[in-house]
Amino acid sequence: MPRNGEINKEFGVYKNLCCGSEIIIPEGVTFPDCPRHFNLTTEWKFITDTERIPHAGELKPKRPA
Ligand SMILES: [Zn+2]
């Protein structure tokens, strides 16, 4: 199972094990830290591929508030 800091090799929805956060991670992108547990190692479980179309609200670009 991939951990944060590793490069994603398969586009899809991933869920992290410590908090259950589900995010879309495109291919070639580094798996992020857990949103709640920075600097801790977490594993990302592959949930599904493109069968599930994400809502626009789930794709939150990182912008300053
Ligand atoms: Zn967490």
Strand content: 15-25%
Runs in which pLDDT lies below 50 for 5 or more consecutive residues are none
Largest beta sheet: strand ordering: 2-1-3
By secondary-structure content and strand pairing, the structural class works out as mainly beta
What is the CA-atom radius of gyration, in angstroms? 11 Å
What composes the largest sheet?
3 strands, antiparallel
What is the share of helical residues?
under 10%
Q: What would you note in describing this structure?
A:
This protein is mainly beta and 65 residues long. The protein is 0% helix and 22% strand. The site of zinc ion has 6 residues, from loops.
Mind sketching the topology for me?
Layout: E1 12-16, E2 22-25, E3 44-48
Antiparallel strand pairs: 1-2, 1-3
Task: Looking at this protein, list some descriptive labels.
mainly beta, binds zinc ion
Q: Brief description of this entry?
A:
The protein is 0% helix and 22% strand. The protein has 65 residues and is mostly beta strands.
